[in-house]
Amino acid sequence: MMFSEKLINWYLQNKRDLPWRETRDPYRIWLSEIILQQTRVNQGMPYYERFTERFPTIGDLAKAEESEVMKLWQGLGYYSRARNLHATAKTVTQTHKEIFPQSYDEIIKLKGIGQYTAAAIASFAFEEKVGVVDGNVFRVLSRYFGIYDDISVPATRKIFQELANDLVQNVSPSLFNQAIMDFGALQCVPKNPDCSICNLSDSCHAFRTGTVNELPVKTKKIKVTDRFFNYLVLEDLNGNTIVEQRIGKGIWQNLYQFPLIETEEYLSMDEIILLVSQKFPSLFSEITDVTKGEIVHKLSHQRLYIKFWKVKLNTVFERGITQEQLKEYAFPIVIWNFITSHYEK
DNA sequence: GAGGCGTGGGT
DNA sequence: TACCCAAGCCT
């Protein structure tokens, strides 16, 4: 048997039942693919359910305010996905008369859709013969066929893309593409896969040569930087507070946060009191360290050392918001966790 | 082409 | 603990 046949046999025995596999609706397939970029099925599933419930069609999504889309996306990370999702819904609704483009070449023109996602939609929804190349495919193909090129080099992708395209020619593209990703996610896992139960091991290069844990080759590591955030949880005489939107480049674009003082190092109690009393002359009343020590919030590429300071002010904010209103904004998860625990009591 | 961009789970 | 990884894309 050929690789493709063995793989599909494995899939027919082991496949997962997932809601976006029960449809050929390109809108739902597209939505699922955006949600699942760099995201595990278990984490993305509830978001898929909420989005399809709230926005049954792409037109419904296009009509929404961006703030609502961001709020629904809250907690999923990589928030540019949500902004691009909304932008593309508008493009398809307005420019394409609400008809999703039906070929790889047209689909890849849309915002937030790259080679992987275009191939996924084109094959799953329209059976176009194009191979998906994601993290699973790098792993499965590098091991089975013995490909030692460094996958952290973008140019390496071409090698895998051409192989994937070849493999998909004589089978159902949607079936093969789903199969290779499920196989990578469930059987040919990154660390210590159980090759003793694998029906492809007898013809697998890595198994034969004992290089399963060496493949795929990936050399580059991410550099992590440290940052120190002091969030001022202001409170006026009415018990209202203030939030601001993060704008420009950097993390958490378009999400909300409390007024922020970022420093180069840890701030002592005395230092924060001095800064805050200077920032609000004559209004400053009382400050408390709500977090009792710092919260370390880890992003993929940054370590954030975060403190929340409750600051009471002798004034009434013109644009103050209530605790109820606070919960309508989209926050980074670390701030949202603070809000739900702090205001619950 | 390298680096930025979240969150959560596994080892 | 620290590191890796997860249905990547954008600049």
Automatic annotation (TrEMBL):
Keywords: 4Fe-4S, DNA damage, DNA repair, Glycosidase, Hydrolase, Iron, Iron-sulfur, Metal-binding. Binds 1 [4Fe-4S] cluster. Pfam families: HHH, HhH-GPD, NUDIX_4. The keyword Zinc does not apply. It comes from the Bacteria. Gene3D superfamilies: Helix-hairpin-Helix base-excision DNA repair enzymes (C-terminal), Hypothetical protein, domain 2, Nucleoside Triphosphate Pyrophosphohydrolase. It catalyses: Hydrolyzes free adenine bases from 7,8-dihydro-8-oxoguanine:adenine mismatched double-stranded DNA, leaving an apurinic site. Its cofactor is [4Fe-4S] cluster. The keyword Lyase does not apply. Its EC number is 3.2.2.31. Residues 35-186 form the HhH-GPD domain. It is an enzyme of class 3 (hydrolase). Adenine glycosylase active on G-A mispairs. MutY also corrects error-prone DNA synthesis past GO lesions which are due to the oxidatively damaged form of guanine: 7,8-dihydro-8-oxoguanine (8-oxo-dGTP). Belongs to the Nth/MutY family. This is Adenine DNA glycosylase. It comes from Paenimyroides ceti. The gene is mutY.
